Each structure stands twice: as C-alpha cells, then as structure tokens.
Prior knowledge:
By secondary structure, the protein is α/β, with parallel strands linked by helices. Helix content is 53%, strand content 10%. The protein has helices spanning 5-10, 15-34, 43-51, 56-66, 81-86, 102-105, 115-125, 130-134, 145-154, 172-193, 199-222, 232-241, 247-266, 292-298, 313-316, 327-339, 350-362, 377-392, 409-424; strands spanning 71-74, 90-93, 137-141, 161-164, 277-283, 302-308, 367-373, 397-402. The strands form two sheets. Strands 2-1-3-4 form a four-stranded parallel β-sheet, sandwiched between helices. α9 (145-154) links the parallel β3 (137-141) and β4 (161-164). The relative contact order is 0.12. Pfam families: HGD-D.
Amino acid sequence: MADYTKMWKSLGIDIENHNALLAGLGQAYTDIFLSQKNRPEGMKYFDFVMSEVHGLRIKEIVDAKAEGRKVIGSYCVFVPEELVLAVDGVAIGLCAGAELGFEAAEALLPRNTCSLIKSMFGFKLGKLCPYVESCDVIVGENTCDGKKKAYEIFRPLVKDLYVMDLPQTKSETGRMVLKEEYRKFIAKLEKESGKKITVQSLRKGIEIVNAKRKAMIRLAAVRAADPAPISGLDALLINQVFFHDDPVRFTDSVNKLCDELEQRVKDHKGVFPKGTTRVIVSGCPMAVPNWKLPMIIETSNAVIVGEESCVGERGTRWLTDIKGNTVEELLDAITDRYFNVDCAVFTPNPSRVSHVKDMVKKLHADGVIHYSLQFCQPYIIESGPVEKELEKSHIPTLRLETDYSQEDAGQLKTRIEAFNERLKKK
C-alpha cells in the first residue's frame, strides 16, 4: 500500500490507532484468507481490493468529491444505490463489523446493544473509518428499534444524518410508505447534489446496479456444484466488497471470476473434496471484518455454499424492472424491488423461510446454520420459528448466537463440529 497518511489526516483519522487497525486487519486477512488452499486466481483482485480498502478506494472517493460528486454512506440494503447513481453520486457501505471502540460506544449506549450498532459508533468515535469521514450524507434506517433510537444519539456525531423510515408489514400500506420514503430520499439527493433525477439518469443507475446483482446471482448459482469451486469465506468476501468497490469494476471482476469458476465446475475442480458437508448460513449480516463464524465452519470439515443474509442473497437476488418510461414508473419499479427484501423487521415474514428452503434445495445443502448477533432481537426472535419450520421440513438447523469477539470461538467450534457429525449421519 502507498503512503496515504496525508489523505487520512485530511479526513480527521486517528493515524496511530488506524495504523494499528490496518496491521491487525492485514494479519487476520493473511491468516484467514491467504492461507486457504487452491483458491481461484480471480480472487487476487479481491485480495488487492482488501489491501487497498482504506487506501486507493478512499483516494478514488476523495477524487470524486473534488469533482463535485456527493458521497452517500449507508448501513443497510434498503438504501437504493440506483437513486444515488442517478445523481452521479458514490454509494458506500459503512464500517460496522469489528469490536473496535466499544468502550467509547458504551459511554453513549447500553452495554447490551448489538455489536453492529456499537461498531458503528466505535468506528466513528475512534476516527477509524475513512469511509464514514468521507461521506457528505450518511443514511440511517429503522430496521430495528435499536438502530432507530441509536440514530438519535449518532446524529450529532456526523456531518449530515438522514434517517429513512421503513414499513414493517408487507401490505399495500407498507409499500406506499416505502415509496414515499424513496420519494423523499430523491428530494434529499437532488438538493445535496444540485442535480435533477431524469428518466435517463435513473435508468442508467438501475442498469449499473442490475448488472452488479446479475454477477452476484451468477456467483451464487455456480456454488451449487460439488465439489464447491469457491469457499464460503471467499464468497462472503465478495459480498462484502459489493458494498465498497466501484460498481462497474466490481461487476467486471465478479464475471471474470465466474468464468473461471464455471470452468472449474466443468473440470470437477473444487476448494474442498467432493462430498464435503455443505451448509447455508442464515440470519444477520456480516460486515467487514466479521469473518469469525465462516472461518470456524470451514475449518470444521464443512463448506458454506450460500448466505441467506443482507450480505448475501437477501441483498442481491432481485433485479429492478427497467421498463418504465417516466421517473414515477421507475420509482414504482425500485419500490417493488426493495419491498421484496425479507428482512426480519417485517412481521409476519414467511417469505424468508421459503427462501431458505429454496436455497437448501438449489444449492444441495445438508443443513442450515442460523447466525444471530447477541441482542439483535428481530433475528434472535425469528430464529426459533425459522428453526422449527426448517426442521419440520427435515432440514437440520443449528442456531448460534454470538458477537464480534473471539471469546466464544472454542465453544462455537465444538457446537459446529457436533452439528457436522449430525449432518453426516443424515
């Protein structure tokens, strides 16, 4: 990595602590990802992205700001990237996947707040995330009561926090609420950018994001092969980079990787031996650098073949219809697309269980590991009914509740190994 110290200082980053963060992240990445055997050549691009995740990519964002483009950060897949691109903005997913700055965060938040929310505060309070510091606007959303109330405390800490209200029922009223929130978001984007969204600019934004999602759908499909042509760790990494990288470049890199993976499938070449236990991970999202659970699973004689998560198929599997001839018609299409997302905030939420079942069948999975962050009430509460419904359909399911620390790694490994033994006896 080049020396980006001057750039980081200009963004207000705490250089000493940030250097320690990058050193730890680099070592963890080497130990977890670069130690894997028989990785696809196409993963070298994503290794490069991670080596420059706070360097070259941040420089690109700073350069975009210098050109007058607005940088819009968010923590959720309900924030439409299509709309940001339609005003020639840069959409960025923000840091919330590490146990950093928790002591400072707990001075503002209850201790029994989920790790994702505390991480959001920790990165900001510790001045550790150049993405956060680069944003012209940060978009929050009420996908849980914890986030909804935490944003009240977070607002004074950032330059401009825009909070989006989300419906919590899959009803016509709920759809109307979502569409109206997106209409208000358009007004915010137009005001900040000084640019009017047109049919042409919105259609272009939709096309770029659809292409990115099509590449991810292609990647998800190739993982149905046995032996698995790519590890779950690497597939998760690609899903994480989805939120940070330039969208056109990212799409091209994923498609090139898929060319290689499809050839691997033809050659019966995999990263694990044929017949390795296959699992799907379902539940809470895993933001960079939350790699603990996948690492434990894939060092316990199993391979992850799919993620039913916002950082996974829940965030990428639907496309936006591009047939509209007016901004209003395209806004309807965007609303319809995002209203499909089966987040645990919705009640009831039967489509999520149906999707997990479909994934098990499509990807030839032997079982499901349901992952919940401690104190994440929507997914923890929903995990019981999900497990019951899956087991009723003869799909073995293991419920795990954890956080970002390494304190329970041994316990998790023991439980996962026991679950794998159960799967082998199916």
